[in-house]
Queue: 2 jobs
Job 1
Amino acid sequence: MIELKGVTVRYPNGVVGLDDVSLTIPDGQFVVVVGLSGAGKSTLIRTINGLVPVTEGSLVVNGVEVAGASNRKLREVRSGIGMIFQSFNLVKRTSVMNNVMIGQMHDIPLWRSFLGAWSAEEKEIAYQSLERVGIVEKAWTRASQLSGGQQQRVAIARALAQDPQVMLADEPVASLDPPTAQMVMKDLQRINRDLSITTLVNLHFLDLARQFGDRVIGMRGGKVVFDGTGVEADDKVFEDIYGRSLTADDVLPGQA
Ligand SMILES: Nc1ncnc2c1ncn2[C@@H]1O[C@H](COP(=O)(O)OP(=O)(O)OP(=O)(O)O)[C@@H](O)[C@H]1O
C-alpha cells in the first residue's frame, strides 16, 4: 500500500512540486495520473521512490515511512519498486539479457554483474520476465537494435526481474507510436492483473487514461483535483484538470 498524508514537496529553489497531497493506493491497484506539464506527476513518482525528499507530511510505502528515512531505508523501499521511464533508460550497447539482469542487481554483487556471471536461477528469472512481455526471442540482441516499443518492453522486463511490489511508470508511452503505445499499456495492465503489482502510470493522453485507468488521479499545480474512475473522467473533468478546453493534442493521434 502507498499512503500519502498531507505531503508537500518544496524544491530547493522554492517551487512547490506537491501541495498537501493525501492519497491511499491499495495493493494491486492500477492508477493513471494525468495533468498538464508541470502539474506534479513526475514529482509524485519521484517522491514515492524516495528520489525527492518530502518537505512536510507522511508517505508510507509498503509499510516504510519514506519521509525523513535513512539512505539504507530508502534503498530498501526502492528495491521493491520497479521504475519505467519515457526514454527506456537501457544500456544500449549490451544485450537485452544483461539489461534485464540489471533489474536483479540489488541482490547481486557488482563484480558478477560486470562479468556476466549469472546463476541459472537468475537467468531463469530474466527469461520469465522477458516471456511476460513476449520478447524472449530477443534475449541476446543488443538493446540498440530494438524498436522503441521493444525497448520499453525490455525496460518492463528489467523492472519485473526485480520482483517489485510496486511499478512506477513516468510517461512510458510518450515516445511511442499509437499502436505501440496501446500494446505497452496492455502489457502493463496484464502484468498488474496477473501479478497484483500496484501500478502508477503518468500519462498525458486522456483517451489512454480513460481506457486503462481503473482509477484516474488528476493533478494541477501540485494538487490532486480529481480522483475517480476512467469512466467518470469525461471531457468536462479533463477540462477542469487541465484548466483549459481540450485539443487534438490531448488524445493519441488517430484515436480522435
Ligand atoms: N528538480 C527540480 N527543481 C526545481 N523545480 C522542479 C524540479 N523538478 C520539477 N520542478 C517543478 O515542479 C513542478 C512539478 O513538476 P513535475 O516535473 O513534477 O511535473 P509533471 O506533471 O511531471 O510535468 P512533465 O510532464 O512536464 O514532467 C513544476 O513547476 C516544475 O518546474
Job 2
Amino acid sequence: MPAIELDGVEKHFGDVTALRGIDLSVERGDVFGFLGPNGAGKSTTIDIMLNYSHASAGSVRVLGTDVADDPVAVRRRIGVLPEGFEPFETMTGRQHVQFAIESKGVDDYPEEIIERVGLEGAEDRPASGYSKGMAQRLALGMALVGEPDLLVLDEPSTGLDPHGVRRMREIVREEADRGATVFFSSHILEQVEAVCNRVGILRYGELIAVDSLEHLRGTVGAESELTVELAGPASVTAVADAVRSLEGVSQVAEHDRERTLVVGCTTGAKLAVLDEIRASGGEIGDFSTGETSLEELFVSYTDSAGAKPGPGQRRPEGRARADASRDADETSDSGTESTPDPQPSTEVSR
Ligand SMILES: Nc1ncnc2c1ncn2[C@@H]1O[C@H](COP(=O)(O)OP(=O)(O)OP(=O)(O)O)[C@@H](O)[C@H]1O
C-alpha cells in the first residue's frame, strides 16, 4: 500500500486553477522530492494532503486512509514541518516539543528531540526569540515526535546554516532507515538530490514527471561528461575517432599531452564509450564521470513553457494565503483537532 495516493486531484480557488488533476503514488520508505517552480501548486498539494484544504475534485489517501474521512487519525501518524513556521509567543522550545508529544499522545523525551536537532542550551528560552534557523530546527524536532510513518517537510532547510543543513539531511536519512516515508518539498535542488530517491516535478498544477533521478536524466537525454585517461601505446586520435562514431556521443575532446579524452554523451552511452575505447586498442588508465545536475534537469522540464503563471493561475494581489485558504470554497477543519503540528504556511505573498 503506498504512503500517499493522489487520484485526479484538482483545486480551484474561484477562477484560479491551482491543480489540474494530479495522480501521484509515493511508496512507503521513499524519500520523495517534490519540485516545481513558484506557483506550480506544491503548497496547495501539501495542504490538501494534510486536509488543511479540500480538493475541488479527486481523492487523497495518506497511509491507507482517505484524509477527508479521518484527518485526525491520519495526522497523528504524520510529522509536518510547514513552510514559514513561527513559534508560539509564550512557549519555550522545550514546551513546544512537549506540546507536540502530548498532542500525539506519545512518551518521547523532549531532551532527546532537542539534542537531535541541535537546540540544546536554548530549550528553556522563549522560542519566539529564536533565530529563523533555530525556529526551523524546532519545527523539525516537533515533526519528529512520535516516530511518524510519514514526514512532510516543506522547504526544510530555510534559514539553516551549513551544520543545520547537514543535520537535517542526516535526520532524513535516519528516518528513512527506520522505515518512514519522507515527502520533501524544496526549491533547493542540491538538497533534493542529496537525499531523495524519487522526484516529482510539478508545473502549472500538472505533474509532468515522476521518476528516479537516474531515469529522469535518461529521459531528457541528459548529457554526461566522461573523462578517460588512456594508458598503453594506442594513439589518442585513433581512439577518439572510434568513440566519435558512436550513437549518443555528441563531442570528443582530445588532450594528447595528458593522453586524455573528454567525451560528451548521453547517460546511457557511457558504457558503450568505455567498451569502444577498449575495442579500438585503448587501455583505460582511469576515468571519471560528471552527471547532469538536478538543476539542469529541472530547467529542462520546467523551462520549455517558462515558469511564469499560466492562465487562471495568478493569485489575487495582496491576499493572505492563510486567510484565503480558510474562506470561500475552503472548509478547513484544521482547528477541529488539538493540532500536534505547527501552523500551516502564513506567508502573504510569494
Ligand atoms: N488561497 C489562494 N487563493 C487564490 N489562489 C491561490 C491560493 N493559494 C494558492 N493559489 C494559487 O494557486 C497556485 C499554486 O500556488 P502554490 O502556493 O500551491 O504554489 P507553490 O508551488 O507552493 O509555489 P511556491 O514555490 O512559490 O511556494 C498559484 O497560482 C497561486 O497563486
